[in-house]
Amino acid sequence: MRIEPRHERLARKSRVAHEVQRAHTLGPAPDPVCCIPCPDYKPSPGCHRDCPAAPQRLSSEGERSPVELRVAPLVFELKKLGVFHPCWSCEGHTNQAGQVRKIPRIWFYADSVVHIRALADAVNRLFTARRLSTHWQVVLTHSDADNPDTTFSLEPEPAAETSLSALQGDLRVMAEELARQFWLSCDALEQQAR
Fold first, then answer.
1. Quick one: which H or E segment has residue 61?
2. What is the pTM assigned to this prediction?
3. How far, in Å, CA of 130 to CA of 133, rounded?
4. Among 23, 163, 179, 181, which residue carries the largest CB count within 10 Å?
5. What is the spatial distance between Cα 138 and Cα 120, in angstroms, rounded to a whole number?
6. 54 with 35: CB under 8 angstroms?
7. What are the boundaries of each domain within the chain?
8. Alpha-carbon gap, residue 112 to 95, rounded angstroms
């Protein structure tokens, strides 16, 4: 079965191109990334995902509830893209038998489905290049019942039968490589919109 693209195709292409340009305008976010003002920020060497203060600075409750160490670099990089606003994360946890009890994931806000698509494409690029141990996805989720804002989650697919250490390795790979893939995906979307 084939489904034709929706009408007003040129207007939709124009909106995609506009959203890609908006991503380039908003990101990468300038230093300091974690919070403004950042008491730990020094112009040289600048802001970095492996800053020891990042787990506390990325959290709105930094002293009481910092971002977990293994997921903090990816939370930093998502925020640095300038179009995503992380709001909750988990580095993943095992039960007493060593089985994955809680998967690693990052919840975030986004204003544009074009940016979400570019993020999903970037993650797929990393999986296709065999840089990730399993397939990760961007899914629609929700946060608190009293929060009307839409939340998205970057997480491994539910059927992933991978160890926690492999999933946490994926967090590191994405922290190192996701930004580059995201901007490549944005450029590809812009080319398609021409």
1. none
2. 0.92
3. 7
4. 23
5. 6
6. no
7. 9-192
8. 37
